[in-house]
Write a structure and sequence with these properties.
By secondary structure, this protein is an alpha/beta fold. The chain has 27 helices and nine strands. The strands form two sheets. It has a seven-stranded mixed beta sheet with strand order 3-2-1-4-5-7-6, with helices on both faces. It has a two-stranded parallel ribbon with strand order 8-9.
Length: about 750
């Protein structure tokens, strides 16, 4: 895509708007015609009505049936025309089954156009769900595998699947036991007992599985022209499986090459060659396929994220059941933020434009590719001159989709992409994605319907690869959650208001009295208000932040800059008799954007506000990702219930899913132990022993729901605390022995 174009984009935008209005009028005229047809048919006999319509109006019986169906459709769905549906949409809806029509109407209300193609997707998606996505996928996979294998190798194929599964499980156990627990280390823990025996065992078993693989499928030398084109993805998966078996059987893994396909990278954190075995492993449907919508994903899918920023989209994806294989981010401060908050994310600091094709292609066929388009690129002030420049990731996102060919992609941006100055570029972007053989949808997410105190929207592009049995269906919340500025961030602004039961102690005209008076006024003015925008810190001038004269009246904040902390009581003698607007702080902006309170932003020296403003709110990312998960797996969710759950366990922020003991104990348990140790250190400040015990019981109940496991956790915590106390005593004795007269200054500098 070039930075300049010879087309008159404004004229195209105007023409498109005219066409939209014309289509809306046409739909209303069709409904009006339907009412006329119904009246004629009800006021006379069928024969007379048919003749009158044919002779006088040129309306055939087929036309009459279509008009009646459209009329009945609009009567049963009175708000349908408010969504600007086209005449073709009315025709398709009138001919659809009741279930598919209900799904289509929900999609229309969410902002998606529905035509013949989309309706076919909805119908097949419904049948897929009814049959059971897991069973349908396994049936398709088995049929295609059997068509490539010889007729007499069915039993050998079953043997291959079983032995491959055993090998895969042994590899995963090997990684968990011997891969480094510290993300700063890049060498396997070969010093631990049993390492080389486990390595040799995997090599031996992989050799057996490779021989069986070649016996069933050959060595990959089948002529491509003799195969059905639909089997190309299957052949690619089998090729990857064989490459993985070659690596394991040759011993070039672990300390001799890591677990990535690129041996020179020696990436022990990657599990590429382990994942590549999945396709030839024995696979069974879940033991119990839920008949009711779920609130959380039953298994993880893999995602590659480009332009990860501060982690808003990453949090939502993780909460929706996606595991990151890599997060690319070019800005160092933002990459540091990702690493600091979730150390086990595989963060790669790199400009996407500098990432070679071969590196991106390693993730070929991944479940989801996620990305973001900078809000600076699509702001109201930016124009064509931004296209092709540093902030324009659109060409790179297109390149990534073309190379990776994910099962689905999700690309988000601010509502600026829908401004007239960018709408033609948006349309071109969507068209190019469609050319890559994806069904592409774009729609807007209203932030205030998801519990955010924001009068703003995000634009999302979602694509599902053609050939996937499911389709993307944006769900509408049954009970949208709305929270005003006061509801969402009031406690961060008004920190020092006197509790109601102590107001009688406040002296009139004191600083505290004026603070309370101001707090009450601010609450009354913001309890029904929403924040329009979070102004950028570096790239906007003061005048640009204040380009909307009503913004201060709207959201209750003074927009000339940002404050380090909210108003203090001691500031109020200078504000005597005046109501004033507070400045927004970093914490206020972060919570308004949906970040957890403990999420720390690491742009030292400036840039945190820009990072927050650019981020996709985690709750929005989760809402979209759950529906993508449904499209790829057939598992449906109770969206209201799923979004009501916390995005992340805040106690894990700063820890992530790290195996703190370097594999000697179950990773989840050690994470729980670390949380309890940190919590107990805080609880120790409580002087009352009974309160300390009660606080610890409450903490361990939150950390471990299963009471059967709490005793073991408590024992581990006490053992670690005892060991630490012993070390402190020994260190003290050692210091006293070396320095009987006290430790001299600078001894340990």
């Amino acid at each position: 895509m070039t930075a300049q174009t010879s087309l008159d984009e404004q004229k195209l935008v105007d023409d498109a708007e005219t066409l939209k209005n014309t289509m809306a009028r046409l739909s209303k005229l069709l409904v009006k015609a339907a009412k006329v047809v119904k009246r004629i048919q009800t006021e006379t006999t069928p024969d007379v009505a048919e003749a009158l319509l044919m002779v006088q109006a040129g309306v055939t019986p087929e036309d009459a049936r279509l008009f009646r169906a459209i009329g009945e459709l609009v009567e049963t769905n009175p708000g349908l025309l408010a969504n600007g549906v086209s005449a073709e949409t009315l025709r398709v809806l009138s001919a659809a089954s009741d279930d598919a029509r209900a799904e289509a109407i929900r999609a229309i209300k969410a902002g998606l156009p529905v035509g013949e193609s989309k309706m076919k997707h909805l119908e097949s998606h419904r049948r897929w769900i009814e049959k059971g996505a897991a069973n349908a996928a396994l049936e398709t996979r088995s049929n295609r595998l059997e068509s490539l294998a010889c007729s007499n190798v069915r039993s050998r194929l079953a043997d291959l699947e079983t032995q491959a599964a055993a090998l895969r499980d042994e590899v995963v156990h090997f990684i968990n036991m011997f891969a480094p627990g510290d993300p700063e280390e890049f060498e396997m823990e070969t010093h631990r007992p049993g390492y080389f025996e486990a390595h040799a065992s995997i090599t031996e078993k992989a050799t057996v599985v490779l021989n069986l693989f070649d016996l069933v499928f050959g060595k990959g030398d089948a002529p491509a022209e003799s195969l059905d084109p639909k089997d190309s993805d299957l052949l690619a998966a089998l090729e990857q499986s064989r490459r993985a078996l070659l690596r394991f059987s040759s011993g070039l893994f672990g300390h001799q090459g890591g677990f990535a396909f690129d041996v020179e990278a020696a990436d022990v954190f990657s599990r590429e060659i382990a994942y590549a075995l999945d396709y030839i492993c024995i696979q069974r449907p879940p033991e119990a396929v839920p008949s009711l919508p779920l609130a959380r994903p039953p298994r993880t899918l893999r995602v590659l994220e480009l332009g990860a920023g501060a982690g808003g989209q990453a949090l939502g994806l993780m909460s929706a059941g996606f595991e990151h294989v890599a997060l690319y981010e070019k800005i160092g401060k933002r990459a540091n933020t990702l690493k600091a908050n979730w150390p086990t994310w595989p963060v790669v600091r790199a400009d996407l434009k500098d990432v070679p094709d071969v590196v991106l292609a390693r993730h070929h066929g991944i479940d989801l590719l996620a990305g973001g388009i900078s809000s600076n690129m699509v702001s109201r002030q930016s124009g064509k001159d931004k296209r092709g420049e540093t902030d324009d990731l659109i060409p790179e996102l297109l390149r990534a989709v073309r190379l990776v060919e994910p099962r689905a992609f999700m690309i988000e941006s601010s509502r600026g992409f829908a401004f007239e100055s960018h709408v033609a570029y948006l349309a071109e972007f969507k068209a190019r994605l469609t050319e890559l053989e994806y069904t592409v949808e774009s729609y807007r997410l209203d932030m205030k319907l998801y519990g955010l105190p924001r009068e703003d929207e995000r634009i999302v592009f979602v694509g599902v690869r053609l050939g996937e049995p499911g389709t993307f269906l944006p769900r509408v919340l049954r009970n949208p959650v709305t929270r005003s500025v006061w509801d969402a961030v009031g406690d961060l602004v008004v920190l020092h208001k006197t509790p109601s039961d102590q107001l009688h102690t406040v002296i009139r005209d004191s600083a505290q009295w004026h603070y309370n008076d101001w707090a009450n006024q601010w609450r009354s003015r913001t309890k029904y208000k929403y924040i329009s925008t979070i102004a950028r810190e570096w790239t906007e001038t003061r005048d640009e932040r204040q380009n909307d004269p009503k913004s201060e009246e709207t959201d209750g904040f003074e927009r000339s800059g940002f404050a380090v902390e909210p108003p203090r009581v001691e500031d109020f003698p200078a504000q005597h008799g005046n109501y004033f607007l507070p400045k927004m702080t970093e914490r206020i902006a972060a919570r308004a954007q949906g970040f957890p309170d403990r999420w720390a932003f690491k742009a030292i020296g400036g840039g945190n506000i820009d990072m927050i403003a650019d981020a996709m709110p985690p709750i929005l990312a989760k809402a979209v990702a759950l529906q993508i998960y449904s499209a790829l797996t057939g598992v449906t969710f109770d969206l209201d219930a799923a979004l009501a759950k916390p995005i992340v366990n805040e106690r894990q922020i700063g820890i992530g899913a790290m195996r703190l003991n370097k594999g000697r104990q179950r990773a989840e348990m050690m994470t729980q132990v670390e949380i309890l140790l940190r919590g107990d250190a805080s609880i120790a400040k409580e002087p009352n022993a009974k309160k300390r015990q009660a606080m610890f019981r409450s903490l361990i109940k939150d950390v471990e729901p299963n009471h059967m496991n709490r005793t073991k956790l408590t024992e581990m915590v006490r053992a670690i605390q005892g060991e630490r106390e012993r070390q402190v005593i020994e260190n003290g004795d050692w210091s006293d022995h070396l320095f009987p007269n006290g430790v001299p200054d600078g001894a340990f500098d």
